[in-house]
């Protein structure tokens, strides 16, 4: 099983946050040129999991002090998400929630689903200064009701939290608020390929959060270049095609392709994310396949995806005995094609029954394979418009 195979891990756990606002615009940060991991690429905010901070039992008094849903729903053995986690009987449950670092903290003060959300919120605050808070009942506290006062000095707190992650808890204690855990919906889980040239690898839980407005971003220039964008997914994909300097990490590209055309409003996207988040995610471990001139990373559901991928070997799948034309006709396909020849455009292979209407330009190549939202093929939550169907 994936859980057993990840036991001999050679990576760090992490969490990332896909922030979407009105107009279905997504926040993309540009990594610094000196970064050792996806330098200059546009990414979602996020970073490495810190067990001593994100899974600390010290969060429990804060939840108790604020009472209500934040404590009752998030404590192991209680109702709410603890009971909800029991629903994840599917073999597709991502190992990061069952055998990752967050699940290995003893004693288990917080559920992995909670600790990884705290990580995503902490890293988002460190990288771009967005502090997402809620009251004790899990209701979001509008950002402008407390974040604009000069006495709070969020820039100083942002620096302090970067230096010592424990300051994140102290900040919430001073505010008398809790992290906005309930606004984060499980979206996907990616493990860095073993074939990547960088020795740094991450098993990352991606969460989606819908914001009523595109808040002002205050970037950490030690990690980021100083550039950021709130872009519709289709526009980001088009720029990836048309602007050589506009680079997207593969998970970012894939997740943007999943989002493109999936809803017609922020409200419908949040309703969709809330329903699908309850079903959990599976591990996406890209496996490199190399043909005669063709190279692509395959994901679960692809007809060439190995039955038992090796998470640590660093070897690619040699498909050189299969013609490239045949590989391009493969069905089912769930992959990102990186090269057909040196001048080829990069694109996500069209496939599957779900084909959002992207009418023209390079983005017309992007068609969401329903496997991109596995295990949700055939799932249609109420209140979601036809364009968001799976």
Describe this structure in words.
By secondary structure, this protein is an alpha+beta fold. Helices cover 25% and strands 18% of the residues. Strand 1 (12-21) and strand 2 (25-31) form a beta hairpin. Helix 6 (112-128) crosses helix 7 (154-163), helix 7 runs antiparallel to helix 8 and helix 9 (233-242) packs across helix 10 (250-259). 45% of the residues are buried.
Q: Hey, roughly how much beta strand do the residues contain?
A: 15-25%
Uncertain spans: 1-7, 77-91, 342-390
Q: In oligomeric terms, what are we looking at? A: single chain
CATH topology annotation of the largest domain: Nucleoside Triphosphate Pyrophosphohydrolase
User: What is the N-to-C succession of helices and strands?
Assistant: HEEEEHHHHHEHHEEEEHEHHEEEEHEE
CATH superfamily of the largest domain: Nucleoside Triphosphate Pyrophosphohydrolase
Put simply, the count of helices is 12
Q: What form results from the Cα inertia axes?
A: globular
pLDDT averaged residue by residue: 74
What Rg, in angstroms, do the CA atoms define?
Answer: 20 Å
Any idea of the CATH class of the largest domain?
Alpha Beta
Largest sheet: 9 strands, mixed
Helical content stands at 25-40%
End-to-end gap: 27 Å
What is the β-strand count? 16
Question: Which architecture of the largest domain would the CATH scheme give at its second level?
Answer: Alpha-Beta Complex
Coarse structural class: alpha+beta
Number of domains: 2
């Amino acid at each position: 099983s994936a859980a057993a195979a990840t036991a001999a891990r050679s990576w760090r756990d992490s969490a990332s946050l896909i922030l979407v606002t009105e107009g279905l615009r997504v926040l993309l940060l540009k990594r610094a040129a000196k970064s050792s991991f996806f330098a200059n690429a546009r990414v979602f905010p996020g970073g490495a999991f810190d067990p001593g901070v994100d899974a600390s039992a010290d969060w429990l008094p804060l939840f108790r002090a604020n009472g209500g849903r934040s404590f009752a729903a998030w404590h192991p053995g209680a109702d709410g998400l603890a009971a909800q986690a029991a629903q994840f009987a599917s073999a597709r449950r991502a190992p990061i929630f069952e055998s990752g670092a967050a699940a290995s903290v003893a004693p288990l003060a917080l559920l992995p689903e909670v600790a990884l959300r705290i990580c995503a919120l902490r890293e988002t605050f460190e990288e771009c200064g967005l502090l997402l808070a809620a009251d004790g009942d899990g209701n979001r506290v509008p950002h402008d009701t407390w974040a604009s006062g000069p006495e709070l000095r969020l820039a100083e707190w942002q620096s302090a939290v970067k230096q010592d992650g424990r300051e994140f808890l102290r900040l919430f204690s001073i505010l008398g608020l809790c992290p906005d855990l309930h606004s984060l919906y499980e979206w996907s889980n990616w493990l860095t390929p073993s074939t990547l040239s960088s020795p740094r690898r991450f098993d990352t839980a991606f969460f989606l959060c819908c914001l009523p407005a595109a808040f002002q971003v205050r970037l950490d220039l030690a990690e980021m270049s100083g550039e950021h964008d709130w872009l519709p997914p289709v526009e980001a994909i088009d720029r990836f095609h048309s602007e050589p300097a506009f680079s997207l990490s593969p998970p970012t590209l894939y997740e943007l392709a999943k989002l493109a055309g999936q809803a017609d409003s922020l409200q419908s996207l949040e309703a969709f994310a809330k329903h699908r988040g309850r079903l959990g995610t599976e591990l996406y471990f890209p496996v490199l396949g190399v043909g005669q001139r063709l190279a692509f990373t395959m994901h679960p559901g692809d007809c060439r995806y190995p039955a038992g991928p090796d998470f640590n070997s660093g070897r690619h799948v040699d498909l050189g005995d299969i013609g490239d034309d045949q590989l391009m006709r493969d069905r089912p396909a769930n992959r990102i094609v990186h090269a057909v020849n040196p001048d080829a455009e990069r694109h996500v292979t069209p496939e599957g029954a779900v084909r959002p209407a992207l009418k023209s330009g390079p983005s017309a190549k992007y068609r969401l394979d329903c496997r991109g939202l596995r295990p949700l093929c055939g799932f249609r939550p109420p209140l979601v418009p036809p364009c968001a169907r799976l």
